[in-house]
Amino acid sequence: MDLVKEWRTRCIETHSDKCDKTIGSLTLFKPQLLIDVARYCIVSCTEDFPRYLALSYTWGQTKSFRTTRSTIEQLKAPGSLKLPHIASQIPKTIKHAVELTQALGEKWLWVDSLCVVQDDEVALSHELKQMHRIYASSFLTIIAKDGNDADYGLRGLYGISEARSTEQSTVPLARNERLSFMDTDLPTPSHNISGYGNRMWTCQEQVFSKRCLTFESGYVTWQCNCANWTEHQIYHPEADQFRYGQLHQFRELMKPQVPALNKLTNLIQHFNKRNLNFDEDVFDAFSGFHTHLNGLYPSGLVFGHPELYFDISLCWYITQYSSFRRRTPARQNSISLLRRRLPSWSWMGWQGDSMFPFDPEFESVASFDRGFTESITQFYIIGSPDDKTRNMVDCNWSQLRKTAADDVPIGWKRTEYKPPSHWNTDFYTTKYGPEVNPQSMPKYLPKYLYTQVLGATSHHSYTGTRSPW
Predict the structure, then answer these.
(1) pLDDT tens, N- to C-terminus, the chain (469 residues)
(2) Backbone φ and ψ of 121, nearest 5°
C-alpha cells in the first residue's frame, strides 16, 4: 500500500498537470451516484468536479448486487453496504476496491453495478453513452485484470484480501546474491478467452483513464500519461520516457497525426474481436472512441466507418484465421429500431478480427502488397428504407488526393515529384508497360509529393493534398 501511495504522490508532484489531461481534451463528466467509502453507502454527487476513483473489471458469471429503483433509497443510508443481506451479494473485487480506496485516503469510488440504477432505462442509457467520460474524469482507475469474474478480488492487499501468487525467475550471482527478473512480454494468465482483456466494455474504460492502477498476474502496475511503474522494477526517473506498456500503445492509436485508415484499422481490430453480453451494446461500447474520432476525421464516422474514406472502408474484411458471427440484439423491447437493425455492411454488425483495406495510393505502406481504390459513386445516409430525407456521405478523399494545395500546413513539405530514374514513365501513357510492383508505384504519376516526419522511425508520404484538419 505504501508503494501505491508513493506512486500517487510522485505522479502528482513530478508530472504537474500532464496527467490530468484526457484523450482528446474531453470535458469532465459528473456521475449521478458515487460510493462514499467512509460511510459505506451510495450518495448523490453534488460537486461539479468530484475527485473519485473508478473500478474497471469484468462481471463474468458472478451474481452481483445491483442498484435498482426499489433499493436506491436504502443504499443511501450510512452503513447500508455492510448490511449482511447486501454485503453477501457484493463480489470480492468491488469490496476490495472500496477498502483500497479508503486505505488510500480517497473519499469516493464509482462502480457501474452500484452507481447506475440498472432498471432505470433513461439513466442507464445516459450513463452508458458517457461511460468513457466517467473513466476519463476519474482521478484514478482501479483495473482488475486477474480472474474471470468479479469474485476473484484484488489479491495481495495486506489486511484486505487474500495472498497473491506470483512467479519470478532468479539467477544466482556471487556471494549468495540472486537476480530476480520477470519477462513482461510473455502472455499472462489474465489474457484468457473470458477475462478482462476479451471484454469490449473494458477496452474504452482502460484507454480513456488518465491514471491506471492495474492488478495483473499477481503484480500491481501504475500507468499514467507520463510513466509506467511496476513493483518488480526499480524506479529510474530517466527511464520513464522509455517505459511504455500496452496501454500506451493503445492510446497512440487514438492520436493519429493524420486521419489515415491504418491506425483506425488497428483500433477496430483490437476492439471488434472482444465479447459483449448484449450485441446491441456495441454502439455504446464504441461511443467513446466514436466521439473522439469524430473530431479527427472530417465529417465524422457512420457506424464506425469514417465518411472521408467511406467507400474504401466498405471493403472491410475479416482476417483469414478469425472466427466471425452476425451480431443479433437480445433486448428487442428496450432499444430503438435503429439499434435492432445492426447494419450488415458495417463491421459493427459482426464480431470478429476486422480490418479496413490498405490503400497504397494514399499512404505509402511499403510492407503491404495491396491494390488501389477509386471512388465511383455517391453514398447517402437514410434513417430507414422508407425515409425520404437523405444526407450525403462526404467521401471526398479522392478529390483531396488529386487536388494540389497552395497552402501547405505546418509540419508538411511539398516538393515537385520526380519518379526514380529506373521507372519507365511510358508506363502511364501506353497500354503495356514493364511489370511493376504495385506497392512501389502509384496508379497515376503525381505532380507533387507531400511529406511529414511523424517520428524517428515513421515517415509518411502522400501524393495528394492534405486538408488542414
Answers:
(1) 889 999 999 999 988 888 998 887 778 889 999 999 999 999 999 888 899 999 999 888 888 899 999 999 999 999 999 999 999 999 999 999 999 999 999 999 999 999 999 989 888 888 888 899 999 999 999 999 988 889 998 987 877 877 777 666 778 888 888 877 666 554 444 444 458 888 888 888 988 999 999 998 888 999 998 888 888 776 666 666 555 555 566 666 666 667 778 778 888 988 998 888 888 889 888 988 888 888 888 889 999 999 988 988 998 998 877 788 898 877 655 445 445 568 899 999 999 899 988 765 555 444 445 566 778 889 998 877 788 888 999 888 877 766 655 677 777 888 887 776 665 555 545 544 554 444 445 556 667 777 877 665 544 455 444 444 4
(2) -60, -35
Residue 41 identity (one-letter amino acid): C
Scored b (16 or more CB within 10 A) or e, 348-382 reads bbbbbbbbbbbbbbbbbbeeeeeeebebeeebeee
Q: 153 and 278 share a domain?
A: no
Show the domain range for 305: 261-462
Q: Are 367 and 421 in a shared domain?
A: yes
399 within some domain: yes
Amino acid (1-letter code) at residue 172? P
The answer to the question of residue 469 being in a domain is no
Same domain membership, residue 405 and residue 275: yes
Q: 137 and 270, same structural domain? A: no
How many domains are contained in the chain? 2
Last residue of a domain, one of 250, 280, 302: 250
Same domain, 331 and 278: yes
CA distance 154 to 144: 7
pTM of the predicted structure, to 2 decimals: 0.78
Half-sphere exposure of 140 toward its Cβ, with a 13 Å CA cutoff?
A: 22
- Which of 195, 223, 250 is the last residue in one of the domains? 250
